[in-house]
Amino acid sequence: MTENICRFCKSSLSEVFADLGVVSLANSFLKSNMLEKKEPKYPLVAYLCSKCFLVQVPEFERPENIFTNYAYFSSFSNTWLKHSENYVNSVIEEFSFNDKSFVIEIASNDGYLLQYFRDRNIPVLGIEPAANVAKIAQERGIPTLVKFFGVDTAMHMVSRNQKADLVIANNVLAHVPDLNDFVSGMKQVLKEDGIITVEFPHLLNLIRFNQFDTIYHEHFSYFSLLSLERIFSRHGLTIFHVEEIPTHGGSLRVYLKHSDNQRFSIRESVNSIIDKEKKYGLDDILTYSSFANRINCIKEDILKFFHDAKKENKKIVCYGAAAKGNTLLNYCGIGKEFIEYIVDKSPHKQGLFLPGTHIQIMNPSMVFETKPDYLIILPWNLKDEIMQQMNRIKEWNGKFVVFIPKVEIY
């Protein structure tokens, strides 16, 4: 049996944080002609490094096989677009970026964020490994380099005089198997007085609010500020400010500088979040080891909901073909025997089938035709947006359901 090694500090991994069984890759959606073929499945076990407190999933599939042709397009969420626009406005105001600045976004997707810098006449460059997604950005006028990011890509950009005043890495760090290479690349591509902003789901909230469904193979790491500070510090980058933001069930946005950059002083927010993590016990192994029991309790509640609904002959459909939903359904063993279909706003997913469960993805208009009793919102982080969008289900007394942090019916 291969020994699992921490991807940051190279210590041996033996502490199990969460064991979610043997499942398909969460974003490996299927076409109809693939349903009879055997799906690749892998153990989904998150480990805790007892030395650096990084929670991580071993790499079973190379990123090239996951992200080169990707089904996720950020622009289909109004909530996400508004969040991005607000971010752009705030950093322009605080750090005075202008038409002489240069902004790079790593994992820029379809240009959903960089468009707001472009509209303010600020030069941008996206870096996006998924060619199908990058093509959409390029068609919108967002210059996009189709590559995975790391030291090699950073050196390529430096050789072309493409160092940045602002490097953005939103919700990408978790997708990186070689953290040291990625962070080193960020440092190299940053101007001497430039800044980096990184957004990531906060491990503290994953534990507090039972967000086990955010664990999947495409997410290699799960960060606390305690663990991330160690990672950045090793590569000569210093966190000088932190914000708590509501995205993905509670995230952190960290602001980084070169460690020898005296332009930005370290703000109280950094120590405040670290103190908060320590008070919760994120520097104590016992905090992590108790998480598995909480996952089992939620699973029991979810299964009870489905079995009770089936006894009452309730019609159940789901909204949102999100990776977190695939983790939840596969871990709980919920499939077509309970769920008639799933709907998603993205036309890139419609007509496909969920990995593992093989539930078909339809247009949201299908809900209004079939009038289900329950509409389960799998991407619970977009609950408010989806409930507003699908509010007409109240016309036939349809109910919304979310499972995280607990089973709730609206």
UniProtKB/TrEMBL annotation:
The keyword Methyltransferase applies. SUPFAM superfamilies: S-adenosyl-L-methionine-dependent methyltransferases (SSF53335). InterPro entries: Methyltransf_Zn-bd_dom_put (IPR013630), Methyltransf_Zn-bd_dom_put_sf (IPR038576), MeTrfase_14 (IPR013691), SAM-dependent_MTases_sf (IPR029063). Residues 6-67 form the Methyltransferase putative zinc binding domain. GO terms for molecular function: methyltransferase activity. The keyword Transferase applies. GO terms for biological process: methylation. Residues 246-405 form the C-methyltransferase domain. Keywords: Methyltransferase, Transferase. This is SAM-dependent methyltransferase. It comes from Candidatus Nitrosotenuis cloacae.
